[in-house]
Queue: 2 jobs
Job 1
Amino acid sequence: MYILRDEYKMTKNQLLKYIKGEATKEEELKIVEWANESPDNKEYLKSLNNLWLSQNIPSTQASEREMDMVRKITEEKKVVYWKSVLSGKTIRYAAAILVFLLVGSNLFLLNRLNLSSNEDERVLLSQIPQESVITVYTNKGVKSSVILPDSSQVWMNSDSKISYPAKFTGSTREIMVSGEVYFEVQKDNSRPMIVSTNKNFQIEVLGTKFNLKAYDDEKDAVATLYTGEIRIRTDISGSTESKEVLMKPMETVRIENNNIINLVKPRDTSTNIAWKDGILVFDNTPIYEVIKKIERWHGSMFIVRDSSVLNYRITATFNSESAIQIMEMIRYTSPVDYSIQDNTIIISKR
């Protein structure tokens, strides 16, 4: 009798569902990941597979589909005496096939493990078991950095979120982003990184450095490339014809309503990642954008009493100044006034 020890972190019933072909795609991925974690896990699965087969050998003849599967697997595994065995009448019996292939060498099982973890197949983030997906948040006023499973590094601005698998599987490296994130991606030509957003566009990356600003509560998104090459695809939902643009270093693209509005090469792209170094930059920025940045940067709350001030523009650079110090400068250089009530900044026209 085989006993499933606690350290396997997988119940016998779960493994039997996989062996019998009754597991869902999500369950299969979880079991494959578990089996490939250590030789002991894989050996236990093989032992359980053999035990189940020995107790469930059928007496009926194999179907044509089963025969095709046997031929395919044995050819791939270079079983040299397959042809002679195949010529015998008893080969039609599933019992002989299962005893020879499964109990003897576990070819079927190992082939399923290999197929389930096929590196040529794209595995979407939504297909990965939830417990194997890591999600990192940064609250307002907080910034952070993350090392991904492939050693790529990510810096996260305030009020941002990133989700990624604990281990990249399949033909791509799938990431989900909301907010503002700066990437330094490890190059892997055989496995591009796919960065998805809630704004119906994706970025395909090999090895490169780029900044992506895609907050859910803003109508547009902005991507700036610093090194390497990235491809942006819009309208990925399939509702309309997909569009794409290939970006070169020091280019910036703005995406609004699933459309690539413009692709430009600005004079200075460093301002787009100044936040990573703790620098808050306003470059002819309208007050409504200034307010959003201060809210995220300092976790402040704003109330606008006079909407006419929202289109005034500010040009300034801040480092360690507080929200109040920033507002003092804005009041000094523009017709915008402010007051504070219950930890809330109230904006009005002076």
Note: The mean pLDDT is 78.
Job 2
Amino acid sequence: MREAAEGASELGLEGISIGSLAASLGMSKAGVAGHFKSKQDLQLEVVEYGAREFAAHVWEPNAERAPGRDRLLACLDTWYAYSARGPFRGGCLMTSAATEFDGRPGPVREAVAATWGHWTTVLRNDLDTAIDAGELAPPLPPADAITAVESLATGVNQQAQLYGEKHPEKTASAAARVLLGLA
């Protein structure tokens, strides 16, 4: 799965196939095909793998923090750093998949959307908790603030991958704080 995810981060989910995965692993197509019923099954497995990797590196380090401002900021900082360091050869797999499938119907898009939808809910719950506790007062409505801070992660991935910027996560973290009413 790791090699499939690496390939998908570079070529996109549409760019990977049982044949391309077999070639990159030095295996026969039949040897790889035994693990997946179809290309779509391969894509869905890659999305699931990417979601687990994302959770392990972004959510789990912060999961034990109390809900609210501190956990929200920690999650954003961890996410931006994860995207900046290029967790896969082609950057953040989930950001890439979301961009690739945002306008395509079907099960792969639904799987990507469900993953991001869950993450959006986690962030929104922490923002709502922080607002209710008087810890944050974003200048935008909460839903718009979450959309904006999530968009920064896409920018971090692009700055690191497309332009080779060394620390775009620092700019994103500072911008998130402005969007959350801390600057």
Note: The domain at 39-179 is CATH 1.10.357.10 (Tetracycline Repressor; domain 2).
